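Comment thread on ticket #2218

A.B. wrote:
> Attaching the input chain for the structure job we discussed in standup.
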Amino acid sequence: MKVKKTIAVCAAVIRCNGKILLTTRPAGKHLAGMWEFPGGKIELGETPNGCLKREIIEELGIEVMTLDTIFLITHDYPDKSVKIRFIRCLTADTIPALGLEGQQVKWYRPDELTHIRLIEADRPFADFLCSSK
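C.D. wrote:
> Ran it. Output below, let me know if you need it in another format.
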């Protein structure tokens, strides 16, 4: 029996005026075109907060201040598992952010999250947001 690889990931929870920033997965990547909370894989020797700051600059061209982890989940895909740490972030940069990897960027109200094509791994956190308005 083959053991699945577990990938540690951080996702940014950026709010403004009651809405939450989401992006689509870039073309050519796993689950391309589906919506997700922006972020990415933690690299060797990197802290979760350092990872998120780097990923948001690379993906959106904005700087964030990371706060606390508000949700942690492990999700199993057929070929791998992802352990996602959802971290609250603040930004002073002008919004909207740019999709520097060709992805769409959009603000959603929490109640809208139930109606979008969100990646499966992010769904439990979206459901949590909808239930804790």
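A.B. wrote:
> Thanks. Noting for the ticket: The first strand starts at residue 5 and ends at 16.
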